[in-house]
Amino acid sequence: MLPCEYEEGSSCRLSPRRPVLSLGGNSQGRNDIPNLYMDADHSFLYGVVALQAALVDSQQFNEVIHASIEWDAQRDGPFTDLLIQRGWIRPDDRAHLDYLVERKLQAHAGDTKASVASVTHEIEHSLGSLRSDRVQRSLVASPGAENSTPSASGVTRTSPGEDRYTLTKLHATGGIGRVWMARDGQMGRDVALKELRPEQADDAVLRARFLREAQITGQLEHPGIVPVYELARRPDTGRPFYTMRLVKGRTLGEAAEAYHQKRAAGQADPVEFSTLLYAFVVVCKTIAYAHSRGVIHRDLKGQNVVIGDFGEVVVLDWGLAKLMDQSDADFKTSAVSMDHQETERLDLTRHGDALGTPAYMAPEQAGGRLELIDRRTDVYGLGAMLYQLLTGQPPFSGTTVGELLKKVEAEEPVPPQDVWAEVPPTLQAACLRALAKQPSARFASAGELAHEVEQWQEVQRRKAADALRVSQALYHSLVESIPLWVWGKDLESRFTFVSKGLAEGIGLKPEDMVGKTDHDFFPSLADQIRRDDIHVIQTGETMRLTEERTADEKVPRFVEVIKIPVRDSNGEIVGTQGVLWDLTAWKRTEEALRESEALYHSLVESSIMHTWRKDAEGRFVFVNRGFCEALGRARDEMIGKTDFDLFPAELAEKYRRDDTEVLRTGQTLRVTEEHPSGHVVEVIKIPIHDAHAQIVGTQGIYWDLTSWNRTPGKSDPSV
Question: How far is CA 295 from CA 266, 343, 592, in A?
């Protein structure tokens, strides 16, 4: 396999590397280029060119210049090494920067001052504003510096005609081209301007490929494909460029990575996953359209899809696209308004070469089997894109291009569920089918893959709708079956739901209240109710109120109101829900119970009988005054104790057996005993039941019958 320069996620053509002259290092063997390692003045030129190429900004340039002064004194290694060490340029920028400096010097016969003077007005203006003696000396010494006029806009201008386009910011740099954000002065709009990278602009093959990309993109008119506005040449160099609609947003790959980072942290929002799948379906349909026009993309990946800030989904970078009825070698650009010389070298892919991005490349692409490349090659690319959406990573990875391509050709991808267990089985099956090694085993078209994903989404929507209907039915069934008044309101306190109980309580039907406010039904209370609603909405807190309301002067009623905030799926408060119930009957029952308990305790305390209650474990929970006096103990000394704490063991065991019998049978136990002292006593033990009829303890009554038995005509007091 032929070597190539490769960066994860970037497109590359696998072919022999072009030799790159490194001006920042040792230039032995080169007599036509000055040795910059030894010539300190060229460090300044490096800074100027880096600024012009947008590799550094103005602030960084100032730091570059000051650092170059230190480098002048020490000469410790190539100046480009210093730029990389300081983090001002990346290692892979070195060759690009070396090439630009080389071309600049060649154009001015090796004259550094003349090279600096050739920079645009924008660069000169930026340099002139920097407080560096070295910068100022270089500018003053530059030929023509005295006649230079800073641009009012402070930006580089590159345009056909009369300065139509103003470059504002370098947006992205790819394998052969770069994209600028630019201002179209003629139309008064922002655009994206794409051009070849300067060091590759004279390669006829790449120029032809660039022109073909512009032509194909311009011919595909679809909402999912960025429209081309104009194809033109730079007036100064004659190099081609074209302008497109500027789409601001993030790539589908970035969105997938962000989603899976949240998922791993337990913060994923299901809506985000749905958004990713929606964008994927749009991409599939966009590619299906391109296929209907006879165009294959050949470089599908998440990085070539942009999700706009307003929901747009756009497929970019048609640089590797080809017409299905033409081979790369047969492609002609005569339809493009460029010179015929641009089409002299059109063997963009040769048999045995691979074209595309290795991690997302179909097996037939990886093996250079060009005769097998067709629509299903793009279906594979879509499958790789879907794999990334499902797992957050490409289907294959490797440390070298050769290793990666071997995996693409020979190995099966790890099932997505092995990466993330919650991947839906239907989507996994669709993904793996699209990634089949043999094209015949894949989906026959991008539209079929889109349909498969859409069908899964539709099933999920139906399931969600069914679950919602069931939930709503259960909610309404519950609301209508309980003795509560329930309602819902929006942020303006308009009723959105009213239970039948509430409507009937004020003599209306639910539909008579929906859409209206409390002012329509409770004018005297409406302002206070509205203030309560606003408090719940603003604080997000639950409010609970117990109120005494008087329907007339004789019969007061007690009600309890609970108000809670209602939130949407994003957690935003969208209204309130209220529940009201009438506590009057409960209050009356509570009062009656208190009265009953008071009467009970009054009777028990005044009776000659000894009375007590025990729990199921035999612990005393109540004793009356007579029982305490009979045992000579205070009440708090007995509560919580058992018979074993108060009586001899023999008696305690007997009392416990009696209690156990009552707890087991639920029957009343009645015992009459004559003590050796001659006293006759009677003990009655009865079970105590809770509200659910469960036995939870015993109650005992004890009294001395001796005096009753000695009184003629007295009957049993217990009868």
Answer: 41, 19, 87
Query: Angle at the Cα of 150 (from 148 to 154), degrees rounded to 5?
Result: 150
Residues 103/27, Cβ–Cβ less than 8 Å = no
Q: What are phi and psi of 78, to 5 degrees?
A: -60, 150
Helices (H), 142-240: 204-219
Q: Is 77 left (phi over 0), alpha (psi -120 to 50) or beta?
A: left
Q: Which two tokens stand for residue 353?
A: 């070469």
CATH topology match: 482-585 vs 607-709: yes
pTM > 0.70: no
**Six token digits for residue 187:** 């139309």
Beta bridge partners of 225: 315
- Residue matched to tokens 């090279």: 115
What is the tens place of the pLDDT at every residue in 687-707? 999 878 899 999 998 887 776
Size (the chain), residues: 719
Q: Which helix (H) or strand (E) holds 579?
A: strand 573-582
CATH 3.30.450.20 is right for the domain spanning 607-709: yes
Tens digits of residue pLDDT in 232-273: 988 777 889 999 999 889 999 999 999 999 999 988 888 899
- In our burial notation (b when 16+ CB lie closer than 10 A, e otherwise), range 75-94 reads eeebbbebbbeeebbeeebb
Structure token pair of residue 143 = 């030929």
Bridge-based pairing of strands 495-498 and 543-550 is unpaired
Mean pLDDT for 601-608 is 76
Residue 249, phi then psi, degrees to nearest 5: 165, -150
Residue by residue, DSSP assigns 246-309 as ---EEEHHHHHHHHHHHHHTT---HHHHHHHHHHHHHHHHHHHHHHHTTEE-----GGGEEEET
Structure-token pair, residue 683: 């003990």
List, in sequence order, the alpha helices (H) in 519-648.
526-539, 584-606, 625-631, 643-646
Domain borders along the chain are 12-147, 157-467, 482-585, 607-709
685 residue type, one letter: K
Report residue 69's pLDDT band, with 50, 70 and 90 as the boundaries.
Answer: low
- Homologous superfamily of the 482-585 domain (CATH): PAS domain (3.30.450.20)
Residue range 362-387: mean pLDDT, rounded: 93
Q: For residue 455, give both structure tokens.
A: 């069908």
- Tokens in use for 431? 């993904």
Q: How far apart are alpha carbons 224 and 284 in whole angstroms?
A: 10
Q: Topology of domain 157-467, per CATH?
A: Transferase(Phosphotransferase); domain 1 (1.10.510)
Residue 500: both structure tokens together: 């039948």
